[in-house]
Target: PhiRv1 phage protein
Amino acid sequence: MATAPSSVVAHHRARVGALSRDRQPDDPALAEARQDLKAATLESYVAKVLAQAPPLTSEQRERIAALLRVGPRPQADHADLGLVDVDHDA
Model:
């Protein structure tokens, strides 16, 4: 059973829905709202996982933080971080 989205995620989802009704798909405000929704969803997911996980070591925290510091790069460029693709649908 799926859990209800956080109020922050629900807010951003509603904003995307409202803007989608009368804006073009490439509208800057709609694009920004979609990006905000993605960020809120990621933040909510990370908080949920961290709440359920055992405490992380300093090395684990550093590796995870490195993912956020690298900025947007093609997936292949993440090889230097020792990351592998994970199929979440499997």
Remarks:
- The helical segments are 7-22, 28-52, 58-69.
- Residues 42 and 48 are 10 Å apart (CA to CA).
- Residues 86-90 have pLDDT under 50 and may be disordered.
